[in-house]
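Sequence, structure tokens passed on for absentees:
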Amino acid sequence: MVKGTKAEAVIKILHKIPLKQREKVKEITLDMAGNMGLIVKKSFPNATLVIDRFHVQKLALDALQEIRIKHRWEAIDAENNAIEYARNNSLKYTPKLLSNGDTLKQLLARSRYLLYKSSSKWSKNQSNRAKVLFEKYPDLEKAYKLCQNLSWIFNNTKDKTSALIRLAKWDEKVRQAEFKSFNTIARTMSIHYKNILNYFDNRSTNASAESFNAKIKAFRAQFRGVRNVDFFLFRLTTIFA
């Protein structure tokens, strides 16, 4: 375990491992942060770099949520204006209910989690909410489909050649959709495409490491932070080693 993620500090620690041992490492999964790529290249000369698919998908999901949040703020502003108008004119304000019983503001707030899931995993209420949401906001449906299509590519593609073709087609769909945030993702993926494609060799991910990291964060949260680092590390190794 190394404190921080500064490349120089991490490389210094890793170089304490004999070169012959480091040369045995054949594959490393990582995110798209530049410091991580530098650490791997300097420390594990024979390792293939694999961009974790879940980091790629998270970028797309974050872009989708960005669109939802934008619409939610617009709905909040519209409701505030309507309330102020009613108050200034001595009228009673009654929010309009949609067909599923939500107000527009509620619809956009309560749709957050369903947008992370495949439609096959939606509950009946989520399916009804999604139908109303996509009727009101076709751009959200388009962005949702882009995310699901990207997930489908990672789940169902077996080789690099097919992956390259499918990701190129996905990139074209992104360009046609004209979402600024998705265009940024497409550019990022084009920069890292070789390491993203390496996923399709062995389908390696950082899932176990991310899970362990989540456990550490939860453990730390129980004690509202860490005062004695050495004792904290001792407890971690005792519980999780």
About this structure: The chain has a mean pLDDT of 92.
